[in-house]
Amino acid sequence: MGIVSPGFQGRPRTAEPALPPGQYLTQDFPVLSAGPTPRVPLDTWEFVVTGEGGAEYRWSWDEMMGLPQETPHVDIHCVTRWSKLGTNWQGVSLDTLLDGIDTSARYALVHSYGGYTTNLPLDDLRGGRAWVAHTYEGGPLPAEHGGPARLLVPHLYFWKSAKWVRGIRLLADDQPGFWETAGYHDYGDPWREQRYQGD
After folding, report:
1. 76 three-class SS
2. Which Pfam families has this protein been placed in (predicted)?
């Protein structure tokens, strides 16, 4: 005699993927920007890491393309509540860019063409969790999505993945960026719904 009543199949399995709280799934890639879209020619584009003491480490576009490339397949989550799953990118890991830079910094302030900034703990840019991404779904990253290159930090809300990235300043102490000074959360973990200060 069975221990399960005939016809009982348990709770139906949902086909919906697990999303962070308060998020909805989209197939689109919404365009959200706080200002005009910068147009950065590749022959003048550069990425600069600035150490606490002012030392600078620079890469031109060609030099960046010559570094080891990775192809992250990640989910992304916007603070405006949309999530897009299984996105495909190509770019250079921050582990590669920070390799050999002697620093005791605990934080980073990311700078973009156009003046945008955002802050992150330096540990969140290491360990295979962040990239300077230049390719999306097999093609050059469109300008409206941050091209020619944006920061990609998919485990945090997407405003931390600064568009039109041009550099990172390493800091001993945290320094809030553009949206953080306007009331957004300093960290921005989508699974903890850290949208605004106090969340």
Report:
1. strand
2. Oxidored_molyb (PF00174)
Range of the domain at 53: 44-176
What's the CATH number where 91 sits? 3.90.420.10
pTM of the predicted model as reported, rounded to 2 decimal places: 0.89
Q: Which own/partner contact pairs does 123-129 have at CB distance under 8 Å and 24+ positions apart?
A: 124/153, 124/155, 124/156, 125/94, 125/98, 125/153, 125/168, 126/94, 126/95, 126/98, 127/95, 128/93, 128/95, 129/153, 129/154, 129/155
Q: Is the CB of residue 99 less than 8 Å from the CB of residue 143?
A: no
| Radius of gyration over every alpha carbon of the chain, rounded to an integer in angstroms | 19
User: C-alpha angle 176/178/184, rounded to 5°?
Assistant: 70
Total domains, the chain: 1
Q: Would 155 be classed as within a structural domain?
A: yes
- Token pair for 59: 């890469």
